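Lesson 9: reading folded outputs for more than one chain in a single document. The general rule is that every protein is listed as its sequence immediately followed by its structure tokens, and records are never interleaved. Here is the first one.
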Amino acid sequence: MKIAVDYDDVLVPFVNKFLAWHNERNNTGYDVQAMEHFHFGRNFGGSEQMWTDSINVFHGLGLSAQLDPNEGAVEALRYLAKDHDVVILTSRPSMHREHLEKWVDKHVSGIVGELHMFDGKDQTKPTTGHNKGAVCREIGAGLLIDDNNGHIESAVSQGVGGILFGDHRWTQDHRHKYEGASNWGEAIKIVDSNYS
């Protein structure tokens, strides 16, 4: 089976590192523990475009390529790749491909088979636009591991399995709807039990 794995906050600690950089750059004190929603603007104010622009600067500087993998991520991908085709699927715009490819080459080269990026508008709405669920179907993925409940919802609506990943405040309210894994050990158990 092909398993699509999100990058930010599944393979790397993006939000923590991005907020630390954003706080230093803008003299703010935003904390990941305050994030009840996936979207920065809903948590901290400001427009989504302002946050998107800031995230694009962070990525554009290559800072996300310098992030270390989350605990257990590389080992989990290596384990999954024994029996499955593991790919990375991110909603990052393709303008950041070079930086992400550097990270893949450094940490998971030979483990991850493909890197899929899309700049999906309406990406968390399962019935409109191009979303991760539709991309999973297009690439033949049978499972999506992601920290965004909207992406998991879009996958499930397309007949693709989903694991809501991470012990984040923005995932906690949605655990009753989807299979959830706080860490890679739990994710592996779910895959072994339900997707092998």
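And here is the second record, again sequence then tokens.
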Amino acid sequence: MYEKNKYAERRKFEQMEQAANQGDAEAQNNLGSEYFFEAMGTHQNYDKAFKWFTKAANQGNASSQYMLGLMYYDGRGVRQDYDRAVELFTKAANQDYSLSQNKLGTMYNEGVGVSKNHSIAKEWFGLACDNGNSTGCKNFRYLNQ
């Protein structure tokens, strides 16, 4: 049973890799996630994650833009660069990607990589909340106290 599952997982990974190599942005994003989170039998590899997230982000994939933003924000596999992180988070946030909206709210609330601005933070948290992000809702309520 274990060998059968392992084979199926490997086959799924190969199909995803083939689609990614053919330019499928969703497959590229998924492959980046596999390498970032060490899933489907892959070893964590930030270089490969960065490669695939970049390909998908360049096609406008909001999830990949967010993940690249995180890599730059945390300095995972790349030199830490808050300006680049803000740029990528903003691209994803402008596509209503709630995780990016909440992250931008946090950055403005704390003044990390941007000038501290509670008004802008509240706007981002409100948008994240509107898009179903419960943490964004909590953060929005906190700033309204």
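What the second record shows: The mean pLDDT is 94.
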